[in-house]
Structure formats: C-alpha cells, structure tokens
C-alpha cells in the first residue's frame, strides 16, 4: 500500500520547488512563500481546508530542507507530519454492526476506564478515554468489538510506533531501525523523512568534486533501456564530476565478507551480512547479543566512497537509491570514510527536474564497473550468492556451508530470535529489511514484475566477468574494507 498518487505528487512538487530555489540561491528568503504558491486560492484539494494543506506543505518544505517538520527535533531521519497524521480516523477498538445493543452490556461492565457507553443503536467507545486494554472485545458475546491497527503501526517490524493522547503517531527513537516501512504504508503520506536535496545542491555549487553513486537496485526501475550508463550521462549533465555504480562496492564487500565467512566457517562460528543498514540496526537495537556476529565488512556504499576518497580525500560522495536506512548509515552509524549524503530516488529526480535533465535510454551500453554478482546485491539472496561465488573462485570448499537468505521484517525477527537462542540450523544469515531485497525498498520508483523483467534483460546484456576479474581492474592498495580500525591515509597513499 502506498499513499494516494495525488499526495505523492504534492510531495514531489514541494521537493522540486525547493530544489529550484536552492539552485537559485534564494531558498532561505523564498521558502516561506512556497505553501501559498503550491496551494493557491481558497478551495481545498486534499484536506478540510487550504490552511491545513498549507501547514502540511510548510512542514514538507522543512523536511525537504533537511529539517524536522516542527520545532522539536529528536534527531531521527523519519518524522511524523502531525497535521497530516491527525486525519487518520482509525481507533484501536471499534464497535461493529454485529453489536446487538444487548441488555447485559458486558462490554461496558468490563471497561475500567469508563470508555464505553450505550448508544442509540450500539455501544460506543470514547477514544479519548480508551486505554486499548482489549477487555471489552474479550467480554462481548457477539464478537462485535474488533481491534484494528493503523497501517503505519502494523508495518513496523520492531513495534517502534505508538500513539500519543491526541491519537498522533509517535516514533520511538530508540526502537526505530529506519527501514521506512511506515512511510510507504501510511495512506495519508503523514510520515516522511528529512531530505538531503539542499545539501547536495550546495555541494554541486561548491568547488569540491562531487561523485554520484547509484545503488544496484537502480537498473530496471526507470523504464526500458535505462541503464547505469543512462544514469552516468544524466548525473554528469546535472553537474556531478563523476559517477560510479555501487555494484562495484558489492564486489568489494563480497571479497571482504566472504573471507570473514570462511574464517568463521572453519571455527564453527556464525556470521551475518552487513550491507543492509536496516538489518544492522535491527540486530544492534533489538538483538544485541548477535552484534558481535555481524560482518565487519563495510557496505557497498561505503566501499565505493572509501575507494573515491582514497584518491580524493576532499571529495563529496552522494549515494542514490531506494533506501531510507542508508541515511541512517551515514547519520547514525557514522562509519569513517562513508558517503556524505544519501538521496532516495524522489530526491535525485527533483534535482534533475529542477535542472531540466532526463534519463535517456542507451542502445548499446559500454559502461560497466561491477560484475553481475555485484549488481545482484539488489535482490534477496544476491549477497550470499556472491560470497559463495567468490569463495568458489578462490578455490574454497563451500559444500558444507548453510546460509539463511532472509528478507522482510517478520522473517528476520523469527530468524534472529532462533539465532539468539542458538537454535538456528544455518551458520550464516543474509539479512535484508525489505521483502525481496533492495529493489523493493521504500522509495522504489517501480518494483513491479514488469520492472523486474526489464532489470533481468538489462543484467543479461552485461559481460560475464567474475568477481575477482572485475576487482583486478581497480587499484585497491591501501583500501580498508572493514568497519574498524580505519587508519589515517598516509601521504604515500
């Protein structure tokens, strides 16, 4: 489920307008006028009145500028737009038409908070008094009281969403893993994230070299013939100094992670992957006993960033993909040498639209910085398959390796619970927060079966170089591919 298309169009319009003003250098002085420009007149289009619509736009403008929507900022990249959330009508316990308005009134008698009272046709629940204990539902002999859950709360794999006394969604900063599932499941588009659009535009306008790095999930999302070369051409037109596909980082992560896996395999120890920051956040925040078993290999995004900064320490590296948690990897995890900014697709498309740049098909693409194994990091099983492939290329016997290829919150919770209790059969876990892998991330442009078919056609057009052959094309001397320690570069490097 995604928010209504008209609401998504509004969000994208805000981002484009902010990007235009940022390029002009007039954002600070003109931002306050955007709500009336975007919501003109007196007739509302989405909400009860234009004044509420403009307040929502004002808060969206703040998010597009990288700020919290309101005055209070808890530091989380995922934020609730309160005036939009207030439109959600769902109460946790609802009396249905099954209510017979019976004489016994067991529901009323069971409530300790005086939240239920007799209505004309059925019992009624006062949501301001209800404490969601569920006793009324248990007491009703007709099963007429049902428990409903808001889509945002139901989608959260770690129960980080609750409601305040006004019925507004509240995100628990300590529990949230930044997976972004609540964002795409809110039908009111009331949950969003802080953007990095303005900061990236300022970098593009500076004297520093700025590199764009597109996630492996990118190919297939944007229509027929839109390859990494299409993106490279478009990013150079936008003003980036160069472009590198993050599938190369997938090959680098594979090389380092596979070695860790095999070393653990020989010792009879368990390991998990480390490329999905949402999964790493889930382990660290909710299954801390398993934290020592997370691979210390840095993510593909960080691998490419470190490769760039090894030669140009002052470079600005900008990741592009469908993932909210990548922003967390940069802001929360603070891994040395990582990318400076992470843009989701809607953010980079806003920058492109502000500059009048479009993606164009390339009939015979020649650009390829990654093996197909690195490119397949975008789908569930791709990371584990790449590690197994690398070990085979290295002549290692992997016949006894057992790998759990897990994606999606519910399956991850089950698998990690078994692992924490020492009851998991497999020695290795590939964990991805998004069901099916990164291609189906919260900000995917198009993750339909048709898009997957297009993706497979694009990947089938690339050469069959293996992982080691591809990495031999790059100077990896002095490159640290692990989280710690991260040595300072010497002048020789």
Write the topology of this structure.
Blueprint lengths: L4 H20 L2 H4 L3 H5 L11 H15 L13 E3 L1 H4 L7 E3 L10 H5 L5 E2 L6 E2 L9 H5 L5 E3 L3 H5 L5 E3 L5 E3 L9 H5 L5 E3 L3 H9 L4 E5 L13 H11 L3 E4 L1 H21 L3 E2 L4 H10 L13 H12 L4 E6 L3 H7 L9 E4 H11 L16 H4 L6 H12 L9 E5 L1 H12 L7 E5 L16 H12 L6 H5 L22
Parallel strand pairs: 9-10, 9-12, 11-15, 12-13, 14-15
Antiparallel strand pairs: 1-8, 2-5, 3-4, 6-7
Helix pairs in contact: 1-4, 1-10, 1-16, 12-14, 12-18
Protein model, in words:
Helix content is 39%, strand content 11%. It is of the alpha/beta class and 493 residues long. The strands form six sheets. It has a four-stranded parallel β-sheet, with helices on both faces. It has a three-stranded parallel β-sheet with strand order 11-15-14, with helices on both faces. Strand 12 (316-321), helix 15 (325-331) and strand 13 form a beta-alpha-beta unit. The longest helix has 21 residues, at 247-267. The two termini are 49 Å apart. Mean pLDDT is 92; it is low at 486-493.
Give a summary of the structure in a few sentences.
The chain has 493 residues and is an alpha/beta fold. The chain is 39% helix and 11% strand. The longest helix has 21 residues, at 247-267.
């Amino acid at each position: 489920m995604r928010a209504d298309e008209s609401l998504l169009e509004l969000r994208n319009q805000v981002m484009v307008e902010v990007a235009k003003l940022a390029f002009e250098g007039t954002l600070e002085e003109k931002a306050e006028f955007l709500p009336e420009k975007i919501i003109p007149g007196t007739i509302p289009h989405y909400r009860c009145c234009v004044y509420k619509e403009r307040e929502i736009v004002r808060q969206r403008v703040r998010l597009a500028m990288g700020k919290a929507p309101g005055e209070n900022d808890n530091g989380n990249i995922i934020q609730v737009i309160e005036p939009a959330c207030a439109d959600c009508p769902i109460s946790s316990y609802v009396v249905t038409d099954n209510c017979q308005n019976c004489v016994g009134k067991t529901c009323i008698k069971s409530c300790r908070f005086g939240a239920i009272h007799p209505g004309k046709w059925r019992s009624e629940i006062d949501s301001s008094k209800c404490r969601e204990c569920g006793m009324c539902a248990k007491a009703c002999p007709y099963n007429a009281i049902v428990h409903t859950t808001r889509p945002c709360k139901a989608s959260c794999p770690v129960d980080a969403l609750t409601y305040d006394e006004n019925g507004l969604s509240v995100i628990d900063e300590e529990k949230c893993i930044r997976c972004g599932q609540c964002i795409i499941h809110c039908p009111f588009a009331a949950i969003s994230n802080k953007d990095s659009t303005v900061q990236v535009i300022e970098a593009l306008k500076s004297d520093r070299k700025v590199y764009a790095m597109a996630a492996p999930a990118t190919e297939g999302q944007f229509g027929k013939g839109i390859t990494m070369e299409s993106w490279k051409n478009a990013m150079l037109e936008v003003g980036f100094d160069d472009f590198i596909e993050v599938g190369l980082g997938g090959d680098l992560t594979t090389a380092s992670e596979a070695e860790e896996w095999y070393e653990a395999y020989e010792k009879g120890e368990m390991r998990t992957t480390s490329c999905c920051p949402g999964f790493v956040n889930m382990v660290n925040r909710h299954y801390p006993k398993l934290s020592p078993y997370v691979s210390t290999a840095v993510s593909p995004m960080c691998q490419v960033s470190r490769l760039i900064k090894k030669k140009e320490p002052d470079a600005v590296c900008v990741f592009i993909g469908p993932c909210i948690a990548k922003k967390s990897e940069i802001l929360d995890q603070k891994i040395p040498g990582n990318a400076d900014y992470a843009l989701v697709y809607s953010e980079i498309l806003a920058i492109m639209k502000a500059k009048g740049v479009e993606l164009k098909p390339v009939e015979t693409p020649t650009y390829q910085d990654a093996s197909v194994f690195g490119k397949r990091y975008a789908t569930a099983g791709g990371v584990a398959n790449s590690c197994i492939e690398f070990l085979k290329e290295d002549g290692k016997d992997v016949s006894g390796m057992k790998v759990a290829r897990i994606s999606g919150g519910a399956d991850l919770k089950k698998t990690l619970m078994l692992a924490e209790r020492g009851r998991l059969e497999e020695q290795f876990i590939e964990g991805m927060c998004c069901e099916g892998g990164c291609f189906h991330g919260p900000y995917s442009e198009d993750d339909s079966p048709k898009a997957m078919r297009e993706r497979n056609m694009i990947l089938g057009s690339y050469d069959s170089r293996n992982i080691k052959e591809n990495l031999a094309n790059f100077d990896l001397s002095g490159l640290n591919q692990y989280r710690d320690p991260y040595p300072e570069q010497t002048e020789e490097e």
